[in-house]
Design brief:
This protein is of the alpha+beta class. Helix content is 23%, strand content 31%.
Length: 243
């Protein structure tokens, strides 16, 4: 048995915009979550995603459609990552159409990025921008890494009830309650849509009210609104007050 652990430090506290003392409290609260209980709570979401074909995501600057039909669904419940709390699959490679704004600040190979916006046609990123000209140039450089880097290898929903805001650390940010994320580039073997790339870059949109809200629908059914799940089976298990 082994574990890879990041010890809370001043740099992480600064990135999270918290004092060292406050960040340590937050870090240990997140890392010592009852992951067995969270694992059981994620089962209804796994079942919903396994049954779903079409996904429609809408928020202020997002209107995105994709298919997850026939792709495996995996729950991340603390067996490999700490912190944890997401359910992931992959989109059908050429199914994504529309535009999306990732409102969580991120970082890739030491380069910070803010307000990443992507437009998709038939699964491929055809237009990309970020907060300024320098970030936009760097973003498009990453997207030109190889053929697979303009396609998406992962689609996931974050459900950790203790993680609320981004800190440019994907291990935390992709688990934010009320978020979803998509990874540009390589797909995981466990949910393989055939996309191969040298990159795997997770980009996060938070849909809680403080971050602008938003909706996720599976096959036309409203699944989550403003960060909270709507159907009873999901709300009773996964909404923050329930976990």
């Amino acid at each position: 048995r082994w574990v890879v652990l990041r010890w809370p430090n001043e740099a992480m506290a600064q990135s999270a915009q918290q004092s060292q003392e406050a960040f340590e409290d937050y870090y240990f609260r997140v890392c010592t979550l009852d992951y067995k209980a969270l694992s059981r709570a994620m089962d209804p979401l796994v079942a919903r995603m396994e049954a779903a074909r079409d996904v429609h995501i809408v928020s202020g600057e997002t209107d995105l459609r994709l298919s997850i039909a026939g792709l495996p669904v995996v729950k991340c419940d603390g067996t490999r990552n700490i912190p944890d709390g997401e359910v992931y699959t992959a989109p059908v490679r050429d199914s994504i159409n529309g535009h999306v704004h990732f409102n969580a600040a991120t970082i890739h190979n030491g380069q910070p990025f803010d307000d990443v916006r992507l437009r998709f046609e038939r699964g491929r990123v055809v237009e990309a921008s970020a907060a300024d000209a320098g970030q936009t140039a760097a973003l498009n450089g990453i997207l030109d890494s190889d053929e697979g880097s303009r396609y998406v290898g992962e689609f996931a929903i974050g459900v950790n009830p203790e993680i609320h805001a981004p800190m440019r650390d994907v291990l935390f940010d992709e688990k934010i309650y009320g978020s979803f994320h998509m990874a540009l580039g390589n797909a995981y073997d466990s949910a393989d849509n055939g996309n191969k790339s040298r990159i795997h870059w997770d980009l996060v949109q938070i849909q809680t009210p403080d971050w602008g809200g938003g909706e996720i629908r599976f096959d036309g059914e409203l699944i989550r609104k403003d960060g909270d799940f709507v159907p009873d089976d999901l709300a009773e298990a996964l909404n923050r007050k329930a976990v």
